[in-house]
Design goal:
Strands 1, 2, 4, 7, 10, 13, 16, 17, 20, 23, 26, 29, 32 and 35 form a 14-stranded parallel sheet that branches. The protein contains two helices and 39 strands. It is elongated.
Length: 456
């Protein structure tokens, strides 16, 4: 375990971070965890893009919509064109509705120097669908691996799954609109994947179990690793389950950052454990209005600078599920909920557990709730309001401590108000940036996800 030996710093999407960071003890671990720069307001969102994203196309292919044919004929033509693409090709698609009736399998690969790119023409609306829900709209890498493939600016609606990724790596799904599918909107749960980049997509209103993203498989049977899930807007995940973003057991070294996820039946973000491999990093997400827990993390993760508001159960919860809760650091988050705000069901006596510098507010429940105890947990520098406030925390004033947050999640501006008693954090647990990417200056110990407006 990392408490007794070296570990590697979790993959965080910053391409310059290459070498291992040895960690000898808990204090050094936290310094290693928090000292890496976060992408800030002055930095580009391109930090979340693959390192090969700027590769120039070798051949630009313009695909024209045949106005004398219908959606299905155009869909068949488009699929045939997709299957002929070679490394370095960029297929630019004219606007229109393309219906593909057959079972699809986009098992094509580019290279790092010459990826294959498929995109909507600038300003065009390209809708890809199918006539019924018997098949997924687009399967990727089912018969053989797909690599260095980009889908950009496309709309997928209808079918069973919207996009289903099989075996593959270095697949970039960017700025796509996936909605009103028969099942999961976007899945990578049928084969192992690594270095997926799922960025800037709008995903909503899936059917069936209705997850926005279903990544990895139960009990570690399918693993996604070293991938980026960032800058997505995921919402209206209902159906029989309805997680917004779900990362399954055994998936490791992933970055889940700066997503806006709301109005879900199940947690807006659910992350299991890594099976002893590198931690996942979950940071700078805005999640609100879940009928369950707003965010649920089993363990083996760094959870920082998130804003979590209005859950039917808790704002943040973790418990044993398909693995044991351990090696979980929850720092500088803002949790606001009518019921319990923080719930650590299985934290008692577990290794590597930290709860520090958070703002944790409950209207009718406990701010801090450890049903089985909190033995061995490091609990420092939190500001709390509600029941169960103990644990050497500072007590806040109530919901007025925020610029504009409501218990029901209709408002989520968690900027501290002028009189909020949030200057209670512990310096050694402080990351370099806040939720907005603004730097946390030396000696500035403001708790929660967001700095005061006057402190930036």
């Amino acid at each position: 375990m990392w408490l007794n030996g070296p570990m590697r710093f979790p993959f965080i999407g910053l391409q310059k971070l290459k070498k291992a960071i040895p960690v000898a003890n808990f204090g050094v671990l936290l310094l290693a965890v928090i000292s890496v720069a976060l992408p800030g307001a002055s930095e580009s969102n391109e930090l979340y893009d693959p390192p090969w994203s700027a590769a120039k196309p070798i051949r630009l292919i313009s695909f024209e919509y045949d106005r004398d044919s219908g959606p299905q004929e155009n869909g068949e033509r488009l699929y045939a064109a997709l299957m002929t693409l070679s490394p370095g090709d960029h297929l630019s698609i004219e606007g229109g509705t393309y219906s593909i009736a057959r079972r699809t399998d986009l098992a094509i690969s580019g290279t790092e120097a010459a990826p294959i790119r498929v995109s909507a023409r600038k300003g065009a609306e390209v809708k890809i669908t199918r006539p019924d829900p018997r098949q997924n709209i687009l399967n990727i890498g089912q018969s053989k691996p797909a690599e260095y493939l980009v889908l950009q600016g496309l709309e997928f609606t209808g079918g069973s799954h919207g996009l289903r990724i099989g075996t593959g790596n270095n697949i970039w799904i960017d700025r796509c609109h996936i909605h009103h599918t028969g099942e999961v909107c976007l899945s990578a749960n049928s084969a192992d994947t690594h270095h997926l980049y799922l960025t800037r997509n709008e995903i909503h209103d899936g059917g069936g179990t209705a997850e926005g993203m279903y990544l990895g498989g139960n009990h570690g049977k399918v693993i996604m690793s070293e991938s980026v899930i960032a800058l997505n807007h995921v919402y209206n995940c209902r159906g029989t389950q309805g997680d917004g973003i779900e990362v399954k057991q055994g998936s490791w070294g992933n970055l889940i950052a700066r997503n806006k996820v709301h109005d879900c039946n199940y947690p807006c973000i659910t992350v299991y454990g890594t099976g002893g491999k590198r931690q996942n990093v979950i940071e700078r997400n805005l999640c609100f209005r879940s009928r369950d827990n707003v965010m649920q993390v089993q363990g083996e993760a760094i959870v920082r600078n998130n804003i979590l508001v209005a859950g039917g159960n808790s704002a943040f919860a973790s418990t044993d599920h398909q693995g044991k809760t351990r090696n979980l650091q929850v720092v500088h988050n803002t949790l606001v909920n009518s019921g319990h705000a923080f719930r650590g069901n299985s934290w008692n006596g577990r290794s590597g557990m930290l709860l520090a510098n958070n703002v944790i507010y409950s209207k009718n429940g406990n701010a801090l709730h450890f049903p089985s105890g909190s033995g061995g947990v490091v609990i420092e520098g939190n500001v709390v309001w509600g029941g169960g406030v103990g644990y050497a925390s500072v007590v806040g004033n109530g919901i007025q401590d925020f610029r504009d947050v409501s218990w029901d999640g209709r408002s989520t501006d968690a900027t501290p108000s002028k009189d909020a008693p949030f200057d209670a954090g512990v310096e050694r647990y402080k990351p370099k940036g806040d939720y907005n990417g603004d730097p946390r200056k030396p000696g500035q110990t403001i708790c929660g996800a967001i700095l005061r407006a006057t402190s930036r």
